[in-house]
């Protein structure tokens, strides 16, 4: 994947470059100290992934991210936790807090590469949603996915990724549309970017749902509805 780094701090840029050099799947096309310089590079080259700081002079990272093509994935790199919720509204692939550990960076890159491969391999379409399964058409075949095999559904720009027990399926549909067609007693909307199968939930706290090793953020506006529905459906009578 072609990538660039945008950060106004020289030491932070060098730190990102050092991390990128550890990843065989990344090819660095440039590092920039402001969004305007990065924009010029993005016009002249195909950029698959951008590592983007948030608090920068002139144009901050959040505002710049809103102008970036849907074909370019974004991983935010920042020292500030408070922008995390906003990053999901922009459909960022990940949100890394400085100082960034190699293990955490590698995990974020692996996630981006998975999505890069999914987007490059072609997209399915939802053909039918029944009472206990969904049909996806892809590669001239129809795939039947049982609801109880679905862990969660994740928004990725103009697509959704259906995460199952042993696979990921991407389809061209927004999250609201697919959630509206799914049974609400099974699938719960927990943020702008995620719908979860309540039966797959391992545990949760006020901010995060855990499904095995996956961490799903809970959006503030969805928090109380999720707790009420989940605990209501699983209460002991």
Write up what this structure looks like:
This protein is an alpha/beta fold and 237 residues long. It folds into 2 domains: 2-119, Response regulator (Rossmann fold, 3-Layer(aba) Sandwich); 123-233, OB fold (Dihydrolipoamide Acetyltransferase, E2P) (Beta Barrel), CATH 2.40.50. The protein has helices at residues 10-20, 35-44, 61-65, 84-89, 102-120, 175-181, 220-233, and strands at 2-6, 27-32, 49-52, 73-78, 94-97, 125-129, 133-138, 141-146, 150-156, 159-164, 168-171, 187-189, 194-197, 203-204, 208-211, 214-217.
Short structural description:
The chain has 7 helices and 16 strands.
Strand content: 25-35%
Side by side, the strands of the main sheet go: 2-1-3-4-5
Order of helices and strands: EHEHEHEHEHEEEEEEHEEEEEH
> What is the CA-atom radius of gyration, in angstroms?
19 Å
The helix-and-strand class reads: alpha/beta
Total number of strands: 16
Question: Averaging pLDDT over every residue, what do you get?
Answer: 90
**CATH architecture classification name of the largest domain:** 3-Layer(aba) Sandwich
Describe the biggest sheet?
A: 5 strands, parallel
Shape: globular
User: What is the number of helical segments per DSSP (H or I, 4+ residues)?
Assistant: 7
Q: What would CATH call the homologous superfamily of the largest domain?
A: Response regulator
Helix content: 25-40%
Span between termini: 53 Å
CATH class placement of the largest domain: Alpha Beta
Task: Return the domain count.
Answer: 2
CATH topology of the largest domain: Rossmann fold
Report low-confidence residues grouped into runs of 5 or more.
none
